[in-house]
Every structure is written in C-alpha cells, then in structure tokens.
Design brief:
The chain has about 260 residues and is of the alpha/beta class. About 55% of the residues lie in helices and about 15% in strands.
C-alpha cells in the first residue's frame, strides 16, 4: 500500500479541514510496519485517534489486512470510502469493518474471498499453501464474527471466489452491517445523545433535522481519545525498544 496525508474530500470536490490518512493500492506483506513508520515520520500519530482513514484498495494479503484492521479497531478510528478517492474491496473490507464509524457511498465497498498474497505463496509447497490459506481464512472469519459483521455477509464473502465480487447495496450496509458496531452505537446513545433515527433520515433521505448530527461524532472522538493514545503507546513501545537495540548494535559494530 501507499500511505499519504490528504485534504481531499473523498465524497466530492474540494478539501476538508483536517488531513486524512489515505491508504491506497494493493495490501502487501510488510504494510502494517510501513504504515506505523509513515505515521511516526509524518507526525500523524499526534492526531491519529481523531483522524479519518480513507481507503482506496482492491484488497490483497489477508494477514496484513487483519493487522491493519486490528490497529484501526484499537485506535477507534473512522473510515471513509468515496468516489473521489476510490473503491475498497476484498481484504480491504476487513479494514473498513474494523472502524467504529464507517462512511461510504453505494457500490464502492466490495466483498469476495480474501487470500494470501502471491508473494507469500510463491515459496510454499502445496501442503504449506493449503495450511497457510486455511489458517488465514479461519482467522479472518473469526475476526469478522468478533466484529459482529452479519453472518450472511460473511458467508457471501467466503462464497465468492477472488475473481468474483459482490457490491453490497446501501440497504445491506445501513441495515445489516451498520455505520457503527453495535457496542459503539449504544455507547454514543448513552454518553453522547445519538439520535439514530434522525441521523438515518438525514443521511439516507436528506430530511432536515434540528438534531446536531455531528455532535455525537465529536463526543465519541473525545471520549475514546485517551484509550486510543494509550493503545498506540503500547504498540509503539516495543518498536522503540527494537530501534534502540538496532542503533546500539550499529554503534557497537562501527567501533570495532
């Protein structure tokens, strides 16, 4: 994948006020570590918990998608898929479903059976490939169940070959997957006064509302910020130790 910061509005022309983290291209082995490196170098970690991830990927390696999806989940990040930036399919759906707040336009998020990258399979024997693929698919299926993705969407995803694709309708997403996980939705209702009925009428039908639609969203970001920062610190701690050890070894080698 390629990682960059952008102010591009994924849903239309123009720019947004807060830069989004654009993840684009095929998901390949090593992308999780490359993502963390980019976040650190770019300084995006300073606003990562409140930042928006923009996905534009045809999918790719399932194991790497699971790593990135778990990161998005731990940091309570929002995810967008829009026509201005591109579609999200296959293993990319795992990252999309991991978000606490996911936004897309109809026909832009596609599902089919995820798979290990060709890079991973090239060095394997048939028995190794079978075992690795079976294990990866099992992990992905269990992870999607943990996310409470509807059983029919999971079944449909694993029925479709990697050369096929199903583009769920707006109805399937809004009333089956949902914009948010069930736990987070109830959290926003209890803590932030989310009016789901008013929100859906506004988003689906454009009906005017006196409810401040964005207030619960901002409230949720504020309430999850500390937990997200703590989770990111735990992820970064072993990486910092590893880099420090590598630096020490480099200095030791150069002094000989």
């Amino acid at each position: 994948m390629e990682f960059s910061l952008t102010r591009q509005n994924p849903f239309g022309p123009g720019e947004v006020s807060v830069p989004g983290l654009l993840m684009s291209g095929e998901i390949r082995p090593g992308d999780y570590e490359r993502l963390l490196d980019f976040v650190d170098r770019s300084g995006y970690h300073n606003n990562m918990p409140e930042g928006n991830v923009i996905l534009a990927s045809p999918g790719g390696d399932i194991e790497e998608a699971l790593k990135i999806g778990r990161l998005v989940r731990k940091l309570y990040m929002t995810v967008s898929v829009g026509r201005e930036t591109g579609y999200c399919a296959s293993a990319c759906f795992i990252i999309f479903a991991s978000s606490v707040d996911r936004d897309t336009s109809p026909g832009l998020v596609g599902i089919h059976r995820p798979y290990l990258s060709h890079e991973s399979l090239r060095s394997m024997s048939p028995s190794q490939a079978e075992a690795a693929e079976t294990s990866a698919l099992r992990d992905a299926e269990q992870y999607l169940r943990d996310l409470r993705v509807p059983r029919n969407l999971i079944d449909l995803m694993f029925e479709k070959a990697s050369t096929e694709i199903h583009w769920p309708s707006e109805e399937e997403f809004m009333h089956q997957l949902g914009r948010r996980p069930a736990w987070y939705e109830e959290f926003l209702i209890a803590r932030c006064g989310l009016d789901k009925v008013a929100e859906e009428r506004y988003l689906l039908n454009g009906e005017p509302t006196t409810t401040n639609i964005m207030a619960p969203v901002r409230c949720g970001i504020e309430l999850t910020f500390d937990d997200a920062e703590a989770a990111y610190a735990k992820i970064e701690a072993p990486r910092m130790i590893r880099d420090l050890e590598a630096l020490k070894q480099g200095r030791s080698g150069s002094s000989r």
